[in-house]
Write a structure and sequence with these properties.
Elongation Factor Tu (Ef-tu), domain 3, 12 strands, six-stranded antiparallel β-barrel, mainly beta, 2 domains, 168 residues, six-stranded mixed β-sheet
């Protein structure tokens, strides 16, 4: 994956007989990423193609999309498992890509090291940092008031944990 392309979904399977596919989204911004007119980079079986989204609807939180150049059920079936990527774009304020948070050093407001982010769990509105350090694995909510400073360029996060957070 290029540094400017983000994985936004994976093709689960074909849907219907007109070339549509069901997508398992890998983004917290599915409605924005899978909008008509957006261009996706489709990577599958060692090949890469750019395809414009011609139509979209959502069912149970998953997009069902039609892509330019994918007209038949056979074309759609051939895309099963394909990775769908697109340019990163600009995020809303105080929103971060998960891959930018992984590897960040976490410290408290006094400068004491807590650990390093190894993963981010949960949906955007309830994300938790998985931090591994001397205390073992800790889950820290990505919430205003707890994560008081996030600097992805410097790979640092400063937290102000409420009493008892690390004792849970």
């Amino acid at each position: 994956m290029g540094p400017d392309l983000l994985l936004v979904g994976r093709v689960a399977r074909a849907h219907g007989n007109k070339g549509q596919v069901i997508v398992n989204p890998e983004t917290d911004f599915a409605a924005e990423r899978f909008a008509v007119g957006n261009v996706l980079t489709v990577e599958h079986a060692g090949q890469t193609h750019e395809r414009r989204i011609a139509a979209v609807r959502f069912h149970d939180g998953r997009p069902i999309i039609a892509l330019d150049g994918v007209a038949t059920m056979n074309d759609a079936e051939a895309l099963a498992g394909a990775e769908l990527k697109m340019a990163a774009g600009v995020l809303p304020a105080n929103t971060f890509y998960r891959h930018d948070l992984v590897g960040c050093e976490v410290k408290d407001t006094a400068g004491r090291a807590i650990g390093r982010v190894t993963n981010v769990e949960g949906p955007m509105e309830q994300s938790r940092l998985v931090v591994t350090g001397a205390r073992g694995e800790l889950l820290i909510p990505m919430a205003e008031g707890i994560c008081v400073r996030v600097d992805t360029a410097a790979k640092t996060i400063v937290v102000d944990p409420p009493d008892g957070l690390f004792e849970l």
